[in-house]
Amino acid sequence: MNPAAARMAGYETSQVIGKLLPEIIPVFNALTGKAVPSPLLETLKTGKVIPLPEHSMFATPDGRRIHFSDTVSLIRDKEGAVTGAVLVFRDITREYEQRQQLYVSNSLLNIAAGIADIGYFKCTADGEITVPVAEKYWPRRDGRPVPAAEWLVPEDADRQQQAWRVFMAERRPELKMLVRSDCSGAPRYFQLHAVRIPAGDGIQPGIYGILQDVTATRESEIRYMDSNSLLQRVLDNLPCAVFVKDYDDGNRHIMANQAYFRMLGFSEEEILNRTDFEFHRPEFARKFVEEDRQVIESGRPLDVFEQFLTRNNRLRWVHTLKSPLTLRSGRRLLLGSCVDVSELQLSRKQLSEANRLLNAVLNHLPLCVIAKDPDDGFRCRIWNNAAGRITGISAAAAIGRTTDELLGDTVDLESFHRHDREAMAADGVVTANDFYTDREGVRHEFKTFRTRVELGDGGQLLLSIFLDITEQTRLEEERRNLIAELELHINQERIINSCLSLLVLHTDYQESLNRIL
């Protein structure tokens, strides 16, 4: 044993002379730990060179474990008889470990490729395939990959082959593109990524690439885009404005429908990915942001009337409902829908002004105005100040109550109800005289005008206007009495004048007296 061999085995040369080889180099399998017969002894026994099994190693006295390779040669005499053998071995521990590491890396790479559905290929710098993609990705014919034009979907073939030709002709460093193939009968999507590797450090120059089957991902993306497109179409056809804000990204708008853009007067590009402060006046934006914060922090919806100025400085009123939404990722969104109620607000304002004007007119009329709902037991809906002054009953106390409850025995209820029924049955105004006795016992006479009023919602009211003619009736009675008295005086005066005429014009007084009597 030469010194180099002895040192590798962990001995001095003098220590090994006379010992059996298995005692000096005890060979065993690195994976199983089982002893492996000495290749030198096996060769001597059989007369044939026995190769060293893979994964063989031996242990040294100082605890080192050495992977080695060997060469065994037989020594023969002139007659060809085996007289001995020579064993030459060398330490390949580092090479073995590198090879094992490479094997593990390749195994992990193959596992990852299988999980990710990735195939790999290699081409020369001129594009000649040296390592084709696995057949599961790119079919074979006669042991060779089918032509690209056949593998690709026809409508994509020209464009994608042109991209490959540009990559090759211009010697670009890498190429990335999405390709489609229908060789399997159904379209499949593949992500192709090729890189150009220059020569160096023992690496052969060429083009290395991967082909990943991304059909499931791509189909999911298509379904997602289809769902988004459908959602957007639905939103765009809604009559109300809809918007979505990402509260965790500065409360920026991430989605809205066309009604929302039209209502604000801004384009989609001017609103999406922007905050309220970027297109609303600060006073309005601050209010919106504070409301959004309340919704997100409370976790409860908010129903509110809001106003803002459009791009054209038109003041608009909207009825808005805001709701919080937390995604599985923890991302917090704010969903909003709003209806433009500007016209409604204007109508309400006009109606309110009209009501105030009507109330002012009614309350300053010297006439009693009462409106009753025949569909609700003839309960009062309008009762003006004049009615309150005469009856001593305020409008607040009268509204919602019936004539029986309000007037009781101060009026002839039977006559009152009859007149109401007649007015409801008639097509025009029904006039009548009604009487009312106040709390001081004074009897009032009213000229009443009753008519049925049809309402826009299908309902109806009985409108009654009472003109107090008590004084007018008294004066009329006095006028009639005065006329009667005057007629009496006139008749008396005519008689007296007739008598005087007889007395003056006739000489026979006796005859004149007889005629007078």
Tell me what you see in this structure:
This protein has 517 residues and is an alpha+beta fold. It folds into four domains: 3-99, Beta-Lactamase (2-Layer Sandwich); 117-219, PAS domain (Beta-Lactamase), CATH 3.30.450; 240-345, PAS domain (Beta-Lactamase), CATH 3.30.450; 366-468, Beta-Lactamase, CATH 3.30.450. Helix content is 41%, strand content 29%. It is built from 18 helices and 21 strands. The strands form five sheets. Strands 6-5-11-10-9 form a five-stranded antiparallel β-sheet, with helices on both faces. A five-stranded antiparallel β-sheet has the order 13-12-16-15-14, sandwiched between helices. The chain has a five-stranded antiparallel β-sheet with strand order 18-17-21-20-19, with helices on both faces. Strand 14 and strand 15 form a beta hairpin. Helix 17 (470-505) runs antiparallel to helix 18 (509-516). The protein is rod-shaped and about 220 Å long. It starts with a helix and ends with a helix. The mean pLDDT is 86.
Structure characteristics:
alpha+beta; Beta-Lactamase; 4 domains; 5-stranded antiparallel sheet; 21 strands; rod-shaped
